[in-house]
Amino acid sequence: MQEVVRWFLLAVLSFMIVGGKLALAVDTSAMLKAMADPAGAPFFPVVMQVLQVLTWALHILFVYTSIGGLFFAIYGFTRRDENWQKLSRATIELSKVSVSLAIVLGVAPLLFYQVIYDPLWYSSANLSAWWYILFIVFLLIGYYFIWGAYLTKDKPTISMFMSILGIIFLLLVGFIIHVVNYQSLYPEKWVEWYTSGGTTMNTSGWNIYAFNIFRYLSFLVFPSVAVTGIFLMLYNWYFRSREDMDKEYLDWAGKVGARFALYAGGGWIVAQVLYIFTIPADWGAKGSIFTWLTLLGLLLVIGVVFAAQKNPAKMAIPSLISGVVALLLIAIFREYLRVASTARFGYSVYDYKMNLEFLSPLLFFGTLLTGLVLYAYAWWMAYRAGRTPKGKVYEASETEHHLGDASVFVVILWAIVFIGVGLIVIARNYA
């Protein structure tokens, strides 16, 4: 009898030990499906994926010029050359405007991501919750430092100091977003991270669990310099037609931009290759067509920028087009990695229960169309006015006046529809 009891206790103890270890072997597939929003997707997930790719590419473009503008400003302030001093003041203004646009345009891709990848985003964000909250604080601090650099741009030492602080906080913001996005690609590790391997519950939100330096360099640091370099080529091309602009300075700025774009583009493709090597083999992503397309896109940028070294103004538009193509391919690649990382567990956004709600998508696309018409007019007028010599007033053509009238009409129509729908919904809810 004692022998039976002894074997029973040993069996229970063994079960407890093994069971404690196996407790971490969570059914990731079931976990992901259980964490998905039970209400399902309000619209077709593939549409949201496309919109997420497009809006992220537009958002990240201005993130790059925000950070790249500060890189050029800091470097320029260390040089005594008057051209560099002048360029530093111009790139600080570029950074100031770009941060505002990046913040506004960053809302859309995040919303699309949250709707179709809610288990990934919220789980990762909760693992590093305090960092995720501080991301907003650091962004605001960095933004204020950039404004400080802009307001003191005629005092190089102070402006450079402000620029250094600004870029530190912007890179820290990029680090946090990188971590949250990267951790979300490893759902099989969430329970282990959250419980420290089954020993405790990590509820502080202060931990950083995953970071990939090559992904950070490839998706943020190198492209910031490369894209801003292409912008300087456009800066040269755009202002050359103005009689009041210094042509020698513009040609110099264009060549500086082309040179930095080439060097940073080389670093960009090296970092991308190294990141591809770190992708887990079971994702099946290393040999994917989407992976190869990112490398081809970056090679295209390097090839065009290399050809632009002698005449940056002439090659500014081709460089812009090649850069846009590369950014879109990178955006598609990022989306593909999400699909590949979750496909291992039989999880797919296309399996979401459809709960079609047409009113919200109609309002969204209506707002998008309104915005396109309005901003097409605003950007076109800014483009034409910017090419007018200082001291002269640009006179809009009859066609441009009609476009302005159409923009005002579309905005008024949108306001009527938007407010009207809200009133209808309120009336129906209280009927």
From TrEMBL:
The chain crosses the membrane at residues 49-77, 97-117, 129-146, 158-180, 216-239, 260-277, 289-308, 315-333, 358-382, 403-427. Signal peptide: none annotated. Keywords: Membrane, Transmembrane, Transmembrane helix. This is Uncharacterized protein. It comes from Hydrogenobacter thermophilus (strain DSM 6534 / IAM 12695 / TK-6).
